[in-house]
Specification:
Order of helices and strands: EHHEEHHEHHEEEEEHHH
Largest sheet: 6 strands, mixed
Number of strands: 9
CATH topology of the largest domain: Mannitol-specific EII, Chain A
Radius of gyration: 18 Å
CATH superfamily of the largest domain: Mannitol-specific EII, Chain A
CATH class of the largest domain: Alpha Beta
Oligomer: single chain
Number of domains: 2
Shape: globular
Number of helices: 9
Structural class: alpha/beta
Strand content: 15-25%
CATH architecture of the largest domain: 3-Layer(aba) Sandwich
Distance between the termini: 43 Å
Length: 218
């Protein structure tokens, strides 16, 4: 990282957890705040942070009417996770909640797809939250599962290097890219709210987690 919070394109890609080519495309289309010095793109960290927040807010405001959280999140897919401190174990537990989803052949296939996505880039978005997600060719609808861990999951390699306590798992079909992206943005926006996040971490029941996420609590 350069002085005074100035990022090279490589730094910006690492910060955003996307590829250098993607950052370059955003900058070339003026979709991300940047400057040019000696023919190279440069980025201010604070501007990038604000840009990310704006993208999340825009995604949330554009959430289609047919994506209703309490319709795609069933209580059967909410887990209070005990005695787990490793990412793979937590993903295994939460993946077990999706075995009734049409298009998922078996748990191992789902877990392998999720872990492959994690190897490409961690889905730890910071603030103690991870959003593992995958699109599968035979799945036709959006599905959401939520795990609240009683222990720190310490190996998630999150963007802020903090352990994970909340896992929001999204499963979608190959043809649902826009809905999929908007849902991820919406979930990220929810957990940016420190009150909602703290309530989730201290939740003592599945009903409480469900109510917090579907705005059924005061």
């Amino acid at each position: 990282m350069s002085d005074q919070g100035t990022l090279s394109i490589e730094d910006a890609a690492r910060f955003l957890r996307i590829s250098v080519d993607t950052v370059s495309e955003y900058a070339a289309r003026n979709e991300i705040p940047h400057s040019i010095s000696n023919g190279k793109f440069l980025f201010k960290q604070e501007q990038i942070k604000r840009w990310v927040e704006e993208q999340l807010e825009n995604n949330a405001s554009l959430l289609p009417e047919h994506i209703i959280l309490d319709k795609i999140l069933h209580k059967s897919r909410i887990k209070i996770i005990e005695n787990v401190s490793q990412k793979e174990d937590a993903i295994n537990i939460l993946a077990s909640c999706f075995l009734d989803v049409p298009g998922i052949k078996d748990k191992q296939e789902l877990v392998e797809a999720l872990l492959y996505r994690e190897r490409l880039m961690s889905t730890g978005i910071g603030l103690g939250v991870a959003v593992p997600h995958v699109r599968l060719p035979d799945v036709k609808s959006l599905f959401l599962g939520v795990g609240v861990s009683r222990n720190d999951i310490t190996d998630y390699d999150s963007i802020d290097n903090k352990p994970v306590r909340i896992i929001m798992m999204v499963i979608a079909g190959k043809g649902q890219h826009q809905d999929y992206i908007r849902l991820l943005g919406y979930l990220s926006l929810i957990v940016k709210n420190s009150i909602a996040r703290d309530r989730l971490i201290t939740s003592d029941s599945i009903d409480q987690v469900f109510n917090i996420l579907t705005n059924r609590t005061v």
